[in-house]
Automatic annotation (TrEMBL):
The active site is at C100 (cysteine persulfide intermediate). One of its GO terms (biological process) is tRNA wobble position uridine thiolation. This is Sulfurtransferase. It holds the Pfam family DsrC. One of its GO terms (molecular function) is sulfur carrier activity. Its EC number is 2.8.1.-. Keywords: Cytoplasm, Transferase.
Length: 101
């Protein structure tokens, strides 16, 4: 598994759940079913649009697929502290979202 200088996979096809678990350990995040739900949603989003969503589109996609309770910034920040769009994309094996510093 090759990572860029920020820890993102160079090759999206190298992602496996084991890779996600390893990357989560590096970030001291214990992956729960709630995390996996978002990671798989992100991977589906990427397959459909060929990009990693920034925060607003991520919140909208989660809200549409998983309901308004989960489609909130505060919920995503609890799961993926710091920058949810960046952290979730990294764990899902996707490129860094554009417009994320």
């Amino acid at each position: 598994m090759e990572l860029d200088e920020e820890g993102y996979l160079y090759d999206v096809s190298q992602w496996t759940p084991e890779v996600a678990s390893h990357l989560a350990q590096e970030l001291t995040i214990e992956l729960t079913d709630a995390h996996w739900e978002i990671l798989y949603l992100l991977r589906d989003f990427y397959r459909q649009y060929q990009l990693s969503p920034a925060m607003r589109p991520l919140v909208k996609a989660v809200s549409q697929k998983l309901g308004k309770d989960k489609g909130r910034s505060i919920y995503l920040m609890q799961l993926f502290p710091g920058s949810p769009a960046k952290v979730a994309a990294l764990l899902a094996g996707l490129p860094k979202p554009e417009n994320c510093l």
